[in-house]
Amino acid sequence: MVPFWVLLYAVLPRSFRPRRSWSIKQIVAVNFTRRIYKVTERAGVTWGTRDPEEACDNRALKETRFEWVDPLPERLRTGIVADGQVPFKRVGVFVWPKDGSEGSIQRKESGIALTSPSDVEARAGNEPLIGIFLHGGGYCHMSAHESSSTSKIPRQLIKDKAFDQIYAVEYRLLQHAPFPAAVQDAAAVYAHIVRQHQRPPTNCKVVLIGDSAGGNLVLALARWIRDEGVLPPPDGLLLLSPSCDPSHAFPESPSSYIPRPHGSTDYLVDTPEPRALLQRTFLGHNPLETMHSPYVSPASMRVLRAYYGDAFAHSVQDLTIEQMDTAARKRLREMTSVPGTPANQPETPFEPSTNGEVNGLKPSPTSLALPQISSPRGLSLFSEFPRACIVLGDAERLEREVMKLVSGMERDGVDVRTIWVEDGVHDVLMMGWWDEQVRAKVWGEVEDWLGENLRP
């Protein structure tokens, strides 16, 4: 088919291309990738994965170093991460860059380069910016290894000196353990970084980074941190084409299934039965209604109706990124169909306690027993979420659900920056075959956001 596509689009006028701005290389890459995805999704084939319980020899790594992080401490095991059927385990991380600084402690005999928190802080002017990267792949593909295609993201951020360190988390995929295993693993790494770096007199800033399904995991981790109050919140969320409505694979009836938009311009496929099977495997022993939890599908219509009412949900159902202008943001923030966002409380330093409380706040008894989990302290869906930067293409299948996510964040007063990739497909920063000028522009906007909000 590739020669046919090349010949066809070389002859046809640009108006016949899926997007006028696309080159023949982009058209061929999208069409070819879509065909591969359709076959592998129907066949249940996974790729680019590794055993999360297997160590990685640091001598074989060129850009990162591998470390183990202890399981989430028992005193932090509250809320949705506490599941008697899913054990807590140690977590492997690939730390970017491999060599922290000249002051790093070298273990030449094992090929390990260790960087102490003080080294990182000294290099960053006592306030390092640390990223936690959660890779995409639908919870069943790829890994955190530096050779994975998703590693283009932390590689570029480190190359551009946007972060001092990035921890790429080798969380458990659905073939290794069901939900909430991935949240447990991400929480363990977050707690590790807090323990290592967020202590007087210096503190680091932490940004959660995720692409596609990794963005879904970032949202779940941020929600758990907010709901339970046992750890300080992150300083920002960097969401790259985040998956935020997996419940789309479970319509109320087969006849009510509505395909996601942009089927002719994105490489992601819409195959309801295989996708539903993957999501059911992801849930494992949890009831099917868990798919409509805000921890799993925060942008589903059922969740939006439960938190904001029918009027709000209907108004954002078909919202596009092109329509999200200043007037639309103002309208979302002023809608009166839901309770107002609670006033921000004054910031207080994080002080662990031995009695299960943090700054006088008891952990909430959240669970997955109900489809829509009520937030503690009467919070709305995204109240008290950290500032966020969301990258989204207007040619990708997830456009509508991501815009529902943006709408909910806007409604609850979250500081949201959306980066619009015109004619962009899903997860464009991971696509090495995409227009390099477009990708460079997006990287520039991402790093501008980091510089304006998180770099002194």
Automatic annotation (TrEMBL):
Annotated GO molecular function terms are: hydrolase activity
Which residues fall in a compositionally biased region of kind Polar residues? 338-357
Annotated stretches, region: Disordered = 337-358
Q: Which InterPro entries match?
A: AB_hydrolase_3 (IPR013094), AB_hydrolase_fold (IPR029058), GDXG_lipolytic_enzyme (IPR050300)
Quote any Pfam family the record assigns.
Answer: Abhydrolase_3
* Keyword annotations from UniProtKB, A to Z: Hydrolase
* Domain Alpha/beta hydrolase fold-3 stretches: 132-299
Question: Under what name is this protein listed?
Answer: Alpha/beta hydrolase fold-3 domain-containing protein
Q: Which organism is it from?
A: Postia placenta MAD-698-R-SB12
